[in-house]
């Protein structure tokens, strides 16, 4: 499967039809989906109709947009009109949204072809896609290992050449962590840059939608399409989409890049070695490297696992057997709701709802939720200080390469620690990108992470491009 840029160019020029590109994508899905469990739903007919419409418009000489004919996989917490949307949960069984998420409308307007919905950890809670009610997704690079999570299906779709582009959501690392484990680019945009209208909420003060791709340019093209103000999301920044592709080749000459000890300490030796080689590559490209310590980042995980469950316990109250999906009957309304939620939610979702409800309850609110918000403020201040010294920050994306199935499922804390390096940017609302850089144990990919202040996506893509070239992908 060709990348996003070449596909769009060939389709727009008439060198390839959108339908032929789509058929290639569908054939690869048929070849590998049973083994990998990437797609929960494939909309072959809808995708063919969309591809034919694009080909018709091109035949009439129209410009169909930046993503002409590009097949795209959607994480199954994004709404698409009349397409089953499950969040990998039994509680949404049979539910079909009556509307498109804004990102879906924008993809369609740019000529992209949504082909189907990808597996995730239930309601995006997890780091391995093992928490799906529909079985885990396998990592296409080593099927005995997880693809990461929660956007594991979206990452696997791109890594397995099923689609050149997928969208995921990132609340604590769910785009960047699977990108790192599957050898892809993954972007968590600035909070407010991409509309969340039609994203089924996990933790609303943290959630952002972003792209997973094989190249930096592809990610910039996709983000440019989905970003920009949307009146349907009250947290949307009141600005048009920034120009990003134009900055991909800007380089890092003269930039100060802060290597953050707390975003490296505790990582496996192969991951540390990759970050060190990334530092050398950036230095060679003309960046000034500064060693930084940001001790506040060590508190991020604890704060996140109070704030995210607190918001989730509130957001998930809507799944009550009345409005959406599953209903298990009971003698009265309360027992119906109880039976529905007992049957519909998986173990991890129930754990989060209980944690969050506890953290918000009278008598504990100040001690848990209130404290976590203070840590969040400290984290934001710490980032601000770091960005006085450095233009961008660098660290690892994950502590290890892709792990084996079952190796962390018995101990929730072990699983939560997968996100220790990605969570700070969610707490601050600032952007970060994971870029594959070198390989480690068993030849598996390693991701390094570049972080920047709010709306610095252009600079992040430029830094990521320097690493992409240095890693041998010109
Ligand atoms: N793995 C983290 C969690 O379980 C992050 C999830 C996410 O970003 N959606 O909450």
**Number of DSSP helices?**
15
Mean pLDDT: 97
CATH level-4 homologous superfamily of the largest domain: Amidase signature (AS) domain
Tell me which CATH architecture of the largest domain applies here: Alpha-Beta Complex
Please give the number of β-strands. 11
CA gyration radius, whole angstroms: 21 Å
Taking the sheet with the most strands, its summary is: 11 strands, mixed
Q: What portion of residues is helical?
A: 25-40%
Strand composition percent: 5-15%
Any idea what the shape is? globular
Overall structural domain count: 3
Structural class: alpha/beta
Distance between the termini: 18 Å
| Poorly predicted runs | none
Describe what this molecule looks like in 3D.
This protein is α/β, with parallel strands linked by helices and 474 residues long. It folds into three domains: 4-239, Amidase signature (AS) enzymes (Alpha-Beta Complex); 256-297 and 378-470; 302-366, no CATH class. The protein is built from 15 helices and eleven strands. It has helices at 4-13, 18-36, 44-59, 102-109, 152-159, 176-182, 216-226, 269-284, 300-315, 333-344, 347-360, 366-389, 412-416, 423-428, 457-470, and strands at residues 39-42, 71-75, 113-118, 165-170, 185-188, 208-213, 256-260, 288-292, 392-396, 432-439, 445-451. Glutamine is lined by residues 124-127, 150, 170-174, 202, 308, 419.
């Amino acid at each position: 499967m060709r990348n996003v840029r070449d596909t769009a160019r060939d389709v727009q020029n008439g060198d390839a039809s959108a339908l032929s590109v789509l058929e290639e994508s569908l054939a690869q899905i048929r070849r590998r989906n049973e083994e990998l469990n990437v797609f929960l739903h494939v909309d072959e007919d809808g995708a063919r109709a969309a591809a034919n419409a694009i080909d018709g418009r091109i035949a009439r000489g129209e410009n169909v947009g930046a993503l002409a004919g590009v097949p795209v996989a959607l994480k199954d917490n994004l709404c698409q009109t009349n397409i089953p949307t499950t969040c990998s949960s039994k509680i949404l069984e049979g539910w079909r949204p009556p509307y498109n998420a804004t990102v879906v409308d924008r993809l369609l307007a740019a000529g992209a072809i949504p082909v189907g919905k990808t597996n995730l950890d239930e309601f995006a809670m997890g780091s391995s896609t093992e928490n799906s009610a529909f079985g885990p997704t396998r990592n296409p690079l080593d099927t005995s290992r997880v693809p990461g999570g929660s956007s594991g299906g979206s990452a696997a779709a791109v890594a397995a050449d099923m689609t050149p582009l997928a969208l995921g959501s990132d609340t604590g690392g769910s785009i960047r962590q699977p990108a790192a484990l599957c050898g892809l680019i993954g972007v968590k945009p600035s909070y407010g840059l991409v509309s969340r209208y039609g994203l089924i909420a996990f933790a609303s003060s943290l959630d952002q939608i972003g792209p997973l791709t094989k190249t930096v340019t592809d990610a910039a093209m996709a983000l440019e399409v989905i970003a920009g103000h949307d009146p349907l999301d009250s947290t949307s920044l009141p600005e048009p989409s920034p120009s990003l592709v134009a900055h991909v080749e800007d380089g890092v000459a003269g930039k100060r890049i802060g290597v953050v000890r707390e975003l490296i300490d505790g990582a496996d030796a192969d991951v540390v070695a990759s970050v060190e080689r990334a530092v050398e590559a950036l230095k060679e490209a003309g960046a000034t490297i500064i060693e930084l310590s940001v001790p506040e980042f060590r508190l991020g995980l604890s704060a996140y696992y109070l704030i995210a469950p607190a918001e989730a316990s509130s957001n998930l109250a809507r799944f009550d057997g009345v409005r959406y999906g599953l209903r298990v009957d009971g003698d009265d309304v309360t027992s119906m709701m109880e039976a529905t939620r007992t049957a519909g939610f998986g173990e991890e979702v129930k754990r989060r709802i209980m944690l969050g409800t506890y953290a918000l309850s009278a008598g504990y609110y100040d001690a848990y939720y209130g404290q976590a918000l203070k840590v969040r403020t400290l984290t934001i201040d710490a980032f601000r200080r770091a960005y006085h010294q450095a233009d961008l920050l660098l660290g690892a994306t994950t502590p290890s390469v892709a792990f084996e199935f079952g190796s962390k499922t018995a101990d929730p804390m072990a699983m939560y620690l997968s996100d220790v390096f990605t969570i700070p940017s969610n707490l601050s609302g600032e952007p970060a990108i994971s870029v594959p850089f070198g390989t480690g144990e068993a030849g598996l990919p390693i991701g390094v992470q570049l972080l920047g202040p709010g709306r610095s996506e252009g600079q992040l893509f430029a830094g990521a491009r320097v690493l992409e070239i240095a890693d041998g992908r010109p």
